[in-house]
């Protein structure tokens, strides 16, 4: 990667996942508007390069990743020090120090730089992720609007235009609703005449197959292995509905304005949920905060039944006119309390 030539550089660190990237789009858009003559470079995992460039907010990507959600080393930054470095990664000294090691002219971070530095805005644990980073930038004179989260329409054709997209996966087990419940939702929607496709990321083929086994979704409507971002973006942008847990594809639905039903567990939707619009439904059971990166499914997530998700989905979908005999043998509503 090389920054755009003959332009002062802005380096932004947000080396996290797809959902984190998309939740950061309003802040990135504020940075882009504030520095139109600068080359804006985003440090994030290389697998998210296409997604980052598709936001239209950055000129280039600096590949940067570390195990888990740790702070990556950035010393492979090419060329002169950035004119400005902005830490959108977290609120600790580790991410601040990774940027400071490049000796930028200016550095914006939640963590204090030391005696004599301007105090950063306070970190608020109860703040929505999109609002947090816009408020952070605004404190430094960079206006940003948390509602400015929409992505440009994708150029790729959809692999299943008009379908309901069911996505059972998530990076952490804590945010994975049981596949048999996703299957119950998929089966009921198919019985109502809706086409359902089931997607999964890399390493989630077993989850996809488990949903298919319990719902009757045919093999041709299973999208396994992890779609390239362009195809995934087009699929979501032209879908009738997205049903998923709190993971990247949900944020992609928010970004494209696609109707969505999102199942929340360890983290409430007030922190990571969709915009407050009728086309988005966030299902959540209040309870003690959980670990969004835990290895056991969150108890609150397990308290959401399949019937609740079915009703939320049907409320967002137009009825399908009957074209013949009902598909399948139907599902008893009582059997949806899984």
Automatic annotation (TrEMBL):
Q: Name one GO cellular component term.
A: cytosol
**Keywords of the record:** Glycosyltransferase, Transferase
Please give the superkingdom of this protein's source: Bacteria
One annotated GO biological process? lipopolysaccharide core region biosynthetic process
Q: Does the keyword field hold Glycosyltransferase?
A: yes
The reply on keyword Glycosyltransferase is: yes
* Gene Ontology molecular function: ADP-heptose-lipopolysaccharide heptosyltransferase activity
Checking Pfam families in the record gives: Glyco_transf_9
Q: Where is this region: Disordered?
A: 318-338
Q: Which InterPro entries match?
A: Glyco_trans_9, LPS_LOS_Heptosyltrfase
Gene3D superfamilies registered for this protein in UniProt: Glycogen Phosphorylase B
Q: What is this protein called?
A: Glycosyltransferase family 9 protein
Which species does the entry assign this protein to? Streptomyces griseoluteus
């Amino acid at each position: 990667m090389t920054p755009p030539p003959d332009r002062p550089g802005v380096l932004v660190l947000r080396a996290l996942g797809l959902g984190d990237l998309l939740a950061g789009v309003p802040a990135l858009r504020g940075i882009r508007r504030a520095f139109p003559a600068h080359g804006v470079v985003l440090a994030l995992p290389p697998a998210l390069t296409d997604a980052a460039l598709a936001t239209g907010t950055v000129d280039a990507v600096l590949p940067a990743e570390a195990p888990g959600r740790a702070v990556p080393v950035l010393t492979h930054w090419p060329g002169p020090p950035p004119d400005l470095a902005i830490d959108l990664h977290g609120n600790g000294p580790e991410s601040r120090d990774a940027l400071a090691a490049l000796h930028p002219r200016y550095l914006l971070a939640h963590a204090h730089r030391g005696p004599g530095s301007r105090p950063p805005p306070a970190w608020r644990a109860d703040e929505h992720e999109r609002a947090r980073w816009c408020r952070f930038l605004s404190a430094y004179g960079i206006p940003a609007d948390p509602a400015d989260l929409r992505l440009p329409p994708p150029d790729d054709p959809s692999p299943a235009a008009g379908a309901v997209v069911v996505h059972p996966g998530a990076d952490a087990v804590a945010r994975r609703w049981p596949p048999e419940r996703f299957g119950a939702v998929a089966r009921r929607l198919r019985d109502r005449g809706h086409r359902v496709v089931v997607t999964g990321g890399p390493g989630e083929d077993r989850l996809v197959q488990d949903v298919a086994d319990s719902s009757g979704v045919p093999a041709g409507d299973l999208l396994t292995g992890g779609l390239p971002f362009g195809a995934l973006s087009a699929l979501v942008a032209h879908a009738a509905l997205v049903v998923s847990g709190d993971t990247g594809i949900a944020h992609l639905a928010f970004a494209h304005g696609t109707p969505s039903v999102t199942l929340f567990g360890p983290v409430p939707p007030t922190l990571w949920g969709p915009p407050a619009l009728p086309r988005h439904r966030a299902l959540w059971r209040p309870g003690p905060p959980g670990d969004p990166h835990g290895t056991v499914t969150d108890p609150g997530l397990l308290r959401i039944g399949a019937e609740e998700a079915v009703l939320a989905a049907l409320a967002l979908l137009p009825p399908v006119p009957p074209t013949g005999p009902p598909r399948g043998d139907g599902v008893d509503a009582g059997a949806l309390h899984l």
